[in-house]
Amino acid sequence: MVDVPLTLWQHNKSLRMTRQELRDESRESDGNPEVRGRLRRMQQEMSKRRMMADVPKAHVIVTNPTHYAVALRYEGERMRAPVVVAKGADLIALQIRKVGAAHQVPIVEAPPLARALYANCELGVEVPVKLYAAVAQLLSYVYQLKAAVSTGRPAPSTPVINVD
Q1: H helices of the chain, where?
Q2: pLDDT tens-digit profile of 31-46?
């Protein structure tokens, strides 16, 4: 009578896996963590290259002077709303600004709008409805600026863009 519970307990204990066996099984099923990390880094690098390739197609780059940059594209005939083609913080923001400057994409400093777009938008997604008014005001300024440059008129004054 006493031997049966003891035998069952020992049997259940022998069925359990050790910590090392758990780690080995996790590596076999999920893959080696080093390999997964390298794959993730490669995917991020490819995504960054695609994003930088889309910056020259942007119509405007909205920046917070040092930290954020968001590139927007809008084609009124084909799009319902502007689309975020690139966004980044710190070093990536600097690269976006450099690529944009090299391709003569207008760069506008609007810190509240840049932070709001960076926080609320994903790549390839339309601007949220709550930011339509601010983005429309920005795009209007950019179109006026392009018209002024092409006709030789003085540039319009930079608007104060409020994000409410």
Answers
A1: 3-15, 19-30, 33-54, 91-102, 111-120, 132-151
A2: 777 888 888 899 888 8
